[in-house]
């Protein structure tokens, strides 16, 4: 990507967004705010807050984003991250286990013009290419309407703008005109390309989406390009688990508390906020809590393949025995807890059904003790807490959002999710609060509260698996 294009895209991230708190419902979720009178925290809280080392968290984030980079499910980079997490946990004195599981086949590819590689999203209905790819001139074909395809598109690559008609109609007409490949560029400014959905249709040629800026650049410079797409098969991902045993109890008698984070990222993204931040904080909490006795068992679970549909967390929960499920008290899931995007002043506690379950109660209690007024209870799926909720376990996801809109940072799932977008003060605030909540919950018996009244039997529902997920786009 040329420097000018990077600068242009970076300028799109300078947004003016209205601030302020509101108690109204947001999206599908009801909102509840935690109130914090500003107490200093208990001696037990201080075991966490005074030992929490943000520098160590930043070291983890640096290694994941700068030394490894994008950590796509099933890749060597994801495996390297799992090995790093295991090494860290073993240094803290834990016995560590891993779970390996299969992941679905996927399409992987590149769009290269000259010396530049462009960020793409591959259509789920795209054809694959050979190793050499499809080479052709870029031929502008308007919106892909009848009459928009010049004769020169035959044997070359059709560049089509998004809008007016479904993606499939554009692709089908391009094929009929003899195009060897199709590039669809967005019709609105965005940091990430669109994913051209072809419905149930399968194209005979490679089909990719690119941003509006990249499409206009290809159009202006009359480039040639190579599209290469291949199916990646027989891949696996892995979960990494460290267990803190309860004091003076057989492990099969104690309740279980789960502290979880996913460590994979989407393609092209270093994933500093999403989710090296959550991974780094959970690693730091594992370090801090290692020497302290607790009544409950704590499992620190780092899951792979979250970004392709919560695969790792669902696999992990599916492998729990009936006895383990019965002993499972709560899941504290950390996902995107350190963004420096100024409007994201609130730490949302996302619960799938929006109920103030034990995780919310523990977190809001810690917030009150620590004088923190940043918490908002919200109805939302879209992270690994969903897997635990589906098994009837009280679960919540902690994530930074803008109060009043529940918006995420504009560089979410983009190449701009880099370490310079991380706030050390927010890492510390969130890590101390969530750590105090977990430790307080785990160190006490909490008689009669192993299952909250809001806890439910195994369920499934129409909730998001990913923040990118929306109703299927036809155009």
Notes on the structure:
With 475 residues, the chain is of the alpha/beta class. It contains 12 helices and 17 strands. The strands form 2 sheets. The protein has a 9-stranded mixed β-sheet with strand order 1-16-15-17-14-12-13-11-2, sandwiched between helices. Strands 4-3-10-6-7-8-9-5 form an 8-stranded mixed β-sheet, with helices on both faces.
Write a short abstract of this structure:
The protein is an alpha/beta fold and 475 residues long. It has helices spanning 3-11, 43-49, 54-68, 76-91, 167-176, 212-221, 272-289, 311-318, 322-327, 358-370, 385-390, 424-443, and strands at residues 32-33, 96-102, 106-113, 116-118, 121-122, 134-140, 157-161, 181-185, 207-210, 224-232, 236-244, 256-262, 297-303, 328-334, 346-351, 375-379, 394-401. The radius of gyration is 24 Å and the shape is elongated.
The overall pLDDT average reads 88
The CATH class name of the largest domain reads Alpha Beta
Largest sheet: 9 strands, mixed
Total helices: the number is 12
Tell me which CATH architecture of the largest domain applies here. Answer: 3-Layer(aba) Sandwich
Into how many domains do the coordinates divide? 2
**Percent of residues in helical segments?**
25-40%
Poorly predicted segments: 1-39, 447-463, 469-474
């Amino acid at each position: 990507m040329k420097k000018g294009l990077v600068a242009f895209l970076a300028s799109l991230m300078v947004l003016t967004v209205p601030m302020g708190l509101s108690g109204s419902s947001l999206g599908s979720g009801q909102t509840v705010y935690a109130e914090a009178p500003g107490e200093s925290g208990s001696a037990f809280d201080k075991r966490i807050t005074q030992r929490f080392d943000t520098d160590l968290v930043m070291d983890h984030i640096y290694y994941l984003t700068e030394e490894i980079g994008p950590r796509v499910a099933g890749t060597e980079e994801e495996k390297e991250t799992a090995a790093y997490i295991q090494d860290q946990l073993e240094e803290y004195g834990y016995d560590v286990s891993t779970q390996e599981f299969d992941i679905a086949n996927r399409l992987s590819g590149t769009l290269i013009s000259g010396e530049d590689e462009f960020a793409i999203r591959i259509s789920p209905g795209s054809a694959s290419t050979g190793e050499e790819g499809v080479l052709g001139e870029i031929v502008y074909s308007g919106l892909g309407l009848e009459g928009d395809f010049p004769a020169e598109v035959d044997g070359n690559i059709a560049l089509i703008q998004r809008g007016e008609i479904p993606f499939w109609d554009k692709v089908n007409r391009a094929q009929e005109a003899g195009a060897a490949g199709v590039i669809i560029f967005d019709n609105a400014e965005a940091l990430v390309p669109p994913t051209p959905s072809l419905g149930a249709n399968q194209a005979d040629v490679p089909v990719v989406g690119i941003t509006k800026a990249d499409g206009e650049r290809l159009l202006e410079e009359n480039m040639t390009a190579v599209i290469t797409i291949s199916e990646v098969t027989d891949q696996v991902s892995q979960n990494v688990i460290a267990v803190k045993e309860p004091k003076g109890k057989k492990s099969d008698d104690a309740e279980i508390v789960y502290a979880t984070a996913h460590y994979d990222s989407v393609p092209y993204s270093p994933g500093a906020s999403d989710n090296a931040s959550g991974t780094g904080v959970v690693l730091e909490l594992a370090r801090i809590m290692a020497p302290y006795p607790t009544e409950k068992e704590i499992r620190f679970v780092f899951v792979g393949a979250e970004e392709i549909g919560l695969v790792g967390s669902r696999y992990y929960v599916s492998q729990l025995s009936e006895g383990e499920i019965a002993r499972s008290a709560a899941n504290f899931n950390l996902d995107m807890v350190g963004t420096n995007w100024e409007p994201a002043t609130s730490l949302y506690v996302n619960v799938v059904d929006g109920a103030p379950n034990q995780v919310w109660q523990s977190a809001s209690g810690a917030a009150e003790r620590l004088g923190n007024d940043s918490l908002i209870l919200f109805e939302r799926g879209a992270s690994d807490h969903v897997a635990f909720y589906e098994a009837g376990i009280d679960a919540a996801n902690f994530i930074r959002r803008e109060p009043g809109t529940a918006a995420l940072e504009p560089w979410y799932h983009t190449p701009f999710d880099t370490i310079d977008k991380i706030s050390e003060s927010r890492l510390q605030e969130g890590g101390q609060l969530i750590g105090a909540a977990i430790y307080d919950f785990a160190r006490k018996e909490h008689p009669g509260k192993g299952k909250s009244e809001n806890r439910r039997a195994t369920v499934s529902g129409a909730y998001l698996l990913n923040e990118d997920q929306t109703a299927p786009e036809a155009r």
